[in-house]
Request: fold
Amino acid sequence: MIPDDARDEIRRKADIVAVIGQHVKLRKAGVNHVGLCPFHDEKTPSFSVNGEKGVYYCFGCGKKGDVFSFVMEFEGKSFVEAAQALAERFGVALQEVADSPARRRERSDKALLYDLNRLAARFFRDRLTDPQDGQRARAYLEARGIAPEVATRFGLGYAPASWDAFASVLRARGVPERLALAAGLVKRRRTGDGVYDAFRDRIMCPIVLPGGEVCGFSGRALESGDDAGPKYINSPESPVYKKSKLLFGLHRAREAFRATRRALVVEGNFDVIVLHQYGFEEAVAPLGTALTDAQVDTLRRLVDEVVLVYDGDRAGRAATLKALKLLVAAGVTTRIARIPLGEDPDSLVRADPAAFRQIIDRAQYGVEYFVHEVWAATQWASADSRAQAVAEAAEVIGAVPDETRRNLLVGELAAATGVDDRVVRRALTAAHRGNAAQAAEIAKPRRSAHRPVPAAELEIIAILADHPTLLGTAEQLGVFSLLTDPTLRDMYSAQRKGQPILAALPEDGDPRVARQVLSGAYASLKNPESTLRAAVRRLEQCRIDSELRRLQQRAIEAGRRGDVDLQRKLVSEIYTLKHRNESKAVE
Reply:
């Protein structure tokens, strides 16, 4: 507990302008300092800091408080942690008051664990730069395209292959075994006699809190195979390391969060590191698990929008859908970046940063993506599989907090699947009650029929099948990001890699698609490039029309709620999009 007199002394001594000025560009305006609010997106400064009174207030979003509340909200600290950080910075001595011995020991242990992790991080960094010990690790990072300065920025290190390289350091320093075991840096030998290093022959990524404390590690194996163990090993849960609450790279992404008001969520640590290296500094990743409610809550407080950038394989798609459910339920605006099959963010951004940025900019809004994706993925499957797809889509739609938008999505799902909207609503109700089996049974169609794929998309793939020399043109036109049908996307990816196009067709897929693509109907075209460009323009126009409908509906909803500012912003976006579309049509 923090004594009242200590709280008052911190308030007096802490320079709130200096504290906030670390994160927000402030300028003097009379007795106050003003700048862009770090808690909401704005172009005109409405965030005011009064150094004499020690308070801040935003005239735009209404956020207000003192130096404690700013550090707590902006850095994600508890009150005690905020007070301790401020006390250390401004030279205020804190003395414990009326507390249980267990509580005092817990706080003492946390401080010791932070110190121990800081020692470990320094040890691993030194091993990485060691001419002999770190040679293989440095070669690995170079092969992954990670620049030395970026490795330094993220504090990367190397855990030697020795069984007790770090354990011997701990023994020499007299560090209690119980603390090293609690931090997960060592493990007890099976004989019970002594400990050995938990991380061996691994690239070490320190997990850093917003305040700069190292709370744990994620170790990536240098070698592959059974002898190397799991690809990644993370620190175990401890008083300072709560995996489900942490995001890798968050301490480096906060400034980019404020600038872009968005987060790019990727799957792995090295995806984050490489994206930061290429300028996408708003990238973060969960730590070895699927995205959690706690991580979503952290993102919700820091950004306006989340873009999911998961791998293009089936596992990546499944992870995308799971994460989307949580984000939608939390009311977070979410978009999905379409990563080609067999690719990942790391490989894409290193190959072509500009093309990767285009993929991010063209990311599709999440729920609409899900409604299409979950159905299209099973459109050629059995009736039971299609019913399950409707049930899964209903589960996500049910998580949408806004009733009006929920009703619109029910209509979209019904139209996309051919299932009566009343059936979709019953499936939604069943899914909301947690009865997925009942939802699937309700949504089961009376009769089975292959759902036709978008004609323009099918035409593009067929043209490229007959004229593979146009693949370069298709890449320039951004064809992959325009394709919405999963099977056609997979076919396109196969074409790009020179693989047989039929390999991308599911075993139970509609044979009519293969027949149309391989029919040779476009082989005799006099100007196939012109036909390809026309098909691409039709796809682009469909996307623009869909986006206009979405913006118009949101503007109507904002008007109904009396949110004049949002309605004005949406109307401006509508006019901008229409003008851009008309200008493009003239070209």
